[in-house]
Write a structure and sequence with these properties.
The protein is an all-alpha fold. The protein has 28 helices and no strands. The protein has helices at residues 21-44, 75-83, 87-99, 106-119, 126-131, 138-141, 164-171, 177-189, 193-205, 212-221, 229-245, 252-262, 266-282, 289-300, 310-318, 341-352, 355-365, 376-393, 396-406, 415-427, 434-444, 450-461, 467-485, 498-510, 514-528, 535-547, 551-563, 569-579.
Length: 587
C-alpha cells in the first residue's frame, strides 16, 4: 500500500486529492450527490432516456423502465404501479378500482400495504429506494445499507392518523396474517409504537400468527411502550413467550433487537444480557457486529462503571472472524455516534488507556473485509482515536512509524492529533522532528490554528538546540510570521499574541537573524499591539546583537525597554555599556 495515496474513492488527480478530513468529507459527499442527481434526472425526465437500441440487445444491461406501460383500470395496472413504487398513483388507481366495483385480490392489496407501510404513506425517492427494498422480508433480510434515524424513536410520530394504509386496511373485506404483520412493522418503522401494539392485539384476537420479522419489530418498540426498566424486560419476555407458543423460530435479528432494547433497560439489561448471548449459543446463532456493539454499550455505558472482562472476550471472538453484513446496525449510522463496533471499541480502549487492547482491535479490524463496515468519516474517527492512544502510551519511534504509514493514506490527522504528536515529541525530547510536523500542518490546512501555532512556537523556543536545528526552527518561525501577515479577502487577519511574538523573536535571535528579530517582531509589533516582551526575549536579543556585533540594535533594545517602562531597562543599559564598544554619540 502506498502510504502517500488517498482513499480509493477519490480521483487519482492531485487537484482532487483532499487535504484534510473536511475536504475528504466534502469530496466524498459531492460524489454521492452526483449519483443522486443523476437518479433524480432519470426519474423525472425518463423521456430523454428511452433509447434502448443495442446490438446485441442484453436486457439486464438496459435501463430500467420507470414509466407505467399498462393503461386503463385493471389489477395488472395496479400491480405494475406498485412494482414501480409509485405510491400516489397506486393509491389513486386502487380507489378507482374500488369505486368502479372491481374486486382487488388479497395478495395485491397486501402488496399495496407493503408499499404504503414501507414509505410511510409518502412518495418514494431515490434516497429511500437505496435504503431498503419493500416487500415481505425486506427490512429484515436484505444486506444492510444506510438508514436514517435508525435506532432512536423520533420526537413525533411520522405515521399520520387515518392515513392511506389505515384506510385501506379498514375497508379490506378480508385480512390475513400478512396484512396485520405489514401494518405492525410499518407503524413501528414510522414511530407509532402504541398503534403497532394495538394492531398486534387485534392480530391475536383474530387468531392469526405473527412472523419472526413482526416480533423483531415489536421487541424493538418495547422501550417506547413502557417507562420502567423492569416493565420493558417483562414485555420483551411476553413477546418471546408468544414466539415460543406460536412456534416461531427466533433468528439473529431477534436477539439483536432484544439486546438493543436492553441497552435502554439500565441495570436490568446488564443482569440479563449475558443470558441472551448464551441463548444465542444454545440455538447455534452466530453474533454479528451489532450484537457485540449492543453488548459493549450495555456494560460500558457509564463512565463510573468498573472495567470488566467483556471487552477482552469480545475482542477474542471478533479477532477470529471476518464479518459480513447481516443486520442494519452492523453498518454505518450518521445519527448515532456509538453505533459501530470498531469505533465503539476504539473509544473504550482510549478510556481504559490499554494499548494492547487497541492493537488487538486494530488486528481484528484489518481481518478480511471488516474495515468495510467503517465509512470514510468513521474510518477517520477510528484512526484518530487510535493515533491519540499511540501518542499517549507508545515509544516515540513507534508513534512516528505509525504516523508516517497512516497519515493521508488511512486518515487525516485532526488538530488534536497534531497536538498529541507535539506533546509526545516533547516528552521524548525529539523536537528536531517539529519542522516536518509544521510541513504537515500546512498541508492539512492547520497553519492558522492559534492553539497549534502557540504550542509549536513554545516547544521550539523553550531551550537552545544545535545550530542546524535552530536554523530549521527559524525557517518555521519565518513562515509562521508570514501567515500572520497574510491578508486574504476570505480570511480574517491572524492576530499576534505577546507569547507568539516573543517566541518568534527568540527563534530569530538564536539563529543570528538580528535584523528580523528586531525590526519585524519587536520594534514593530510589540509597540503596535501593546504587548510587553519577557526578560528572556530581551536578554536573548541582546546576546544575538553581541554575537553579530550590532551595537545599534542593542541601543534600540534599551530605548524600547525604557519606553515600555520595563524594570529590566537599567540592567540592559548596563550590559550594553559593558559588553559593546560604543562611540561617543552612541553613549
Amino acid at each position: 500500500q502506498d502510504p502517500t495515496a488517498a482513499h480509493y474513492i477519490f480521483q487519482d488527480d492531485p487537484f482532487l486529492m483532499p487535504r484534510n478530513a473536511a475536504n475528504s468529507r466534502l469530496f466524498s459527499l459531492s460524489k454521492e450527490s452526483g449519483r443522486n442527481a443523476a437518479k433524480y434526472i432519470i426519474k423525472h425526465f425518463p423521456q430523454y432516456f428511452d433509447k434502448t437500441f443495442a446490438e446485441p440487445n442484453i436486457p439486464c444491461l438496459m435501463p430500467e423502465t420507470l414509466t407505467p406501460q399498462i393503461k386503463g383500470l385493471s389489477e395488472e395496472a395496479l400491480k405494475e404501479r406498485i412494482h414501480l413504487r409509485r405510491v400516489k398513483d397506486s393509491v389513486d388507481l386502487f380507489d378507482q378500482l374500488i369505486q368502479a366495483g372491481t374486486p382487488v385480490s388479497l395478495e395485491t392489496t397486501n402488496s399495496l400495504l407493503d408499499l404504503l407501510c414501507f414509505y410511510g404513506d409518502g412518495e418514494s425517492t431515490p434516497e429511500k429506494e437505496d435504503l431498503e427494498e419493500p416487500g415481505e422480508n425486506a427490512s429484515e433480510q436484505k444486506a444492510p445499507k444506510r438508514e436514517f434515524q435508525r435506532g432512536s424513536q423520533p420526537s413525533g410520530s411520522r405515521w399520520r392518523e387515518n392515513n392511506n394504509a389505515e384506510r385501506i386496511f379498514k375497508i379490506m373485506p378480508e385480512r390475513n396474517a400478512h396484512s396485520y404483520c405489514t401494518m405492525i412493522r410499518g407503524m413501528v418503522k414510522h414511530g407509532a409504537s402504541a398503534k403497532a401494539y394495538d394492531m398486534y392485539i387485534g392480530l391475536l384476537n383474530e387468531r392469526h400468527k405473527a412472523d419472526v420479522h413482526t416480533f423483531n419489530a415489536l421487541i424493538t418498540a418495547v422501550p417506547y411502550l413502557k417507562e420502567r426498566f423492569l416493565e420493558r424486560w417483562e414485555l420483551a419476555k411476553v413477546f418471546l413467550n408468544h414466539m415460543a407458543q406460536q412456534e416461531v423460530q427466533p433468528n439473529l435479528l431477534t436477539f439483536n433487537a432484544l439486546l438493543k432494547t436492553l441497552r435502554r433497560c439500565g441495570g436490568v439489561g446488564r443482569s440479563v444480557a449475558l443470558l441472551v448471548i448464551k441463548e444465542m449459543e444454545a440455538l447455534d446463532i452466530e453474533p454479528s457486529l451489532a450484537t457485540y456493539d449492543h453488548l459493549l454499550f450495555i456494560f460500558y455505558r457509564g463512565a463510573d462503571l468498573c472495567p470488566s472482562g467483556i471487552i477482552s472476550e469480545v475482542l477474542d471472538d471478533v479477532g477470529k472472524r471476518s464479518f459480513t453484513p447481516q443486520d442494519l446496525d452492523d453498518g454505518m449510522d450518521f445519527n448515532i455516534s456509538d453505533n459501530l463496533l470498531c469505533l465503539s471499541l476504539g473509544e473504550k480502549c482510549c478510556d481504559l488507556k490499554d494499548i494492547k487492547l487497541a492493537y488487538r482491535l486494530n488486528k481484528a479490524m484489518e481481518k478480511g473485509d471488516n474495515w468495510k463496515f467503517l465509512d470514510l468519516d468513521r474510518l477517520n474517527a477510528y484512526w484518530s482515536k487510535f493515533f491519540s492512544l499511540l501518542c499517549m502510551m507508545e515509544q516515540i519511534d513507534v508513534v512516528l512509524k505509525w504516523y508516517k504509514e497512516m497519515s493521508s493514506s488511512l486518515f487525516y490527522p485532526t488538530p488534536k492529533n497534531i497536538l498529541d504528536l507535539l506533546q509526545a515529541l516533547d516528552a521524548a525530547n525529539h523536537l528536531e522532528v517539529i519542522p516536518s510536523v509544521w510541513e504537515d500542518m500546512k498541508q492539512l490546512g492547520f497553519n492558522r490554528r492559534q492553539d497549534l501555532l502557540e504550542e509549536l512556537l513554545s516547544l521550539m523556543s523553550r531551550e537552545r538546540h544545535p545550530d542546524e536545528i535552530q536554523l530549521a526552527f527559524a525557517k518555521c518561525a519565518e513562515e509562521i510570521k508570514a501567515v500572520h501577515e497574510q491578508t486574504r479577502r476570505e480570511q480574517s487577519l491572524l492576530e499576534w499574541t505577546g507569547s507568539a511574538l516573543g517566541h518568534v523573536a527568540l527563534l530569530f535571535s538564536r539563529a543570528g537573524r538580528t535584523q528580523e528579530a528586531w525590526y519585524v517582531n519587536m520594534m514593530e509589533h510589540f509597540q503596535q499591539i501593546n504587548r510587553i516582551p519577557t526578560d528572556q526575549v530581551m536578554d536573548e536579543f541582546l546576546n544575538c546583537a553581541k554575537q553579530t556585533n550590532c551595537p545599534d540594535e542593542a541601543i534600540k533594545l534599551v530605548k524600547l525597554a525604557a519606553s515600555l517602562g520595563l524594570p529590566s531597562s537599567q540592567r540592559l543599559k548596563n550590559r550594553t555599556e559593558k559588553e559593546f564598544e560604543l562611540s561617543e554619540k552612541q553613549k
